[in-house]
């Protein structure tokens, strides 16, 4: 059975290139906005279910769920960019 050659001891180890863009911290308003979006989306959906579809906006019906989930998704997307 053939033997492996092994690695070349003279080769320099791989060093990944440094990224040109430094990670900057988020603005001070970032965390309060995404927390507000998450809470507001949750409250929107809870109020819709508790009020038997009359509130927050009774005339749009189940679209209240879409608004609530959109608020929640906006908050979740902001959490992914939080540093």
From TrEMBL:
Q: Which residues cross the membrane?
A: 29-50, 62-82
Alphabetical UniProt keywords: Cell cycle, Cell division, Cell membrane, Membrane, Transmembrane, Transmembrane helix
For the biological process aspect of GO, one term held by this record is: cell division
Q: Which InterPro entries match?
A: CrgA (IPR009619)
Q: How does it sit in the membrane?
A: Multi-pass membrane protein
rRNA-binding among the record's keywords? no
Q: What GO cellular component term, any one, is given? A: plasma membrane
Where composition is biased (Basic and acidic residues), the residues are 1-11
Could you tell me where this protein is found in the cell?
Cell membrane
Region annotation Disordered: where it falls in the sequence: 1-26
Task performed by this protein: Involved in cell division.
What family does the entry list? Answer: Belongs to the CrgA family.
Q: What is this protein called?
A: Cell division protein CrgA
UniProt lineage: Bacteria, Bacillati, Actinomycetota, Actinomycetes, Micrococcales
Encoding gene (name): crgA
């Amino acid at each position: 059975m053939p033997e492996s050659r092994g690695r070349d001891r003279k080769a320099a180890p791989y060093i990944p290139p440094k990224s040109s863009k430094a990670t900057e911290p988020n603005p001070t308003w970032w965390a309060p906005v995404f927390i507000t979006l998450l809470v507001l989306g949750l409250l929107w959906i809870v109020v819709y279910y508790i009020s038997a579809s009359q509130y927050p906006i009774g005339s749009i019906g189940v679209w209240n769920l879409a608004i609530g989930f959109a608020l929640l998704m906006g908050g979740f997307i902001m959490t992914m960019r939080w540093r």
